[in-house]
Amino acid sequence: KNLKFFYNENIYHINFGKKMIKVENLSKNYGSVKAVRSISFELNDGQVVGFLGANGAGKSTTLKIMTGYISPSSGNVYYGKKNIQDDTSEIQRDIGYLPELNPLYSEMIVHDYLKFISEVRGILENDFKNAFQKVVEECSLNAVAHRTIANCSKGYKQRIGLAAALIHDPKILILDEPVTGLDPNQIVEIRELIKKLGKEKIVLMSSHILQEIQATVDRIIIINEGSIVADGSSEELLNDSAKGKADLKLEVSNADENDIRDMKATIPSIDIKNISKEDSFTSINIEFPSNGDPREDIFKYAVDKNWVILEMVTSKQNLEDIFRKLTGNNKLS
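^ thats the sequence. predicted structure below, dont judge the formating
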């Protein structure tokens, strides 16, 4: 009674009801190397979640475990009442997976390749025609549908892989670097497609293009050295960042270095990080809490000291700053 049949009597999808994926205390060791260290998180219906991490952080390993491609050393992944270790085949029927290294048969024609993938999934005849027409339109493959895969550009190959992941209309979509090799126009198209799919599926995607993640997802999980170091919307991560940044440039003839350093005593919320003298001005780098704005106090202090302010610019940390701060110690592997 917990199964919903799909396409034919041999192919069925798990009916989660209100779908939820629960990753619980997941670990993966390769000998003495701990690739994933007891991580836990949940994914819910209607979410597009970005999964970020530097090379070697455990990102792709986690995605492979979630799809049943490899087994964990400990912990589990629950899809409703099913789990990836005991119910691998049933869960895999409901997952669309695009791995980082897109596996394609280069000698096949795009149409034939997608037909082959569909037959493996049990999608036959008219069901295949309908599914093929849908994914070709969604992934903008009309121009290459009858071309040999080897003769397609890298961007088209990436979209063919995405079409293969979507052909069976999965309830869960796991995408490892889905926009690799796409030009800016194609990236926008795939971004809009992923956001659309996120309204009806659970979508988990990784990418090294941080701006793309920020523009596409509802939530970001950052993993570093096998452990989760951040989890929230991009706005929450930015608001939780400890400090914003301000740059202040002063005319050198008016700014005494002792007065510059004494500014900290008058304005306790700021932290003077660097003072450098140029030909005609002094440049001061200042950090301050992101929930405060010291510009008015700095201006009053400058007036009191008879400084001439040439420039005063504030900027909050962006997602790249936060990513680098949280993963800066990670080593390539």
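The longest helix spans residues 125-138.
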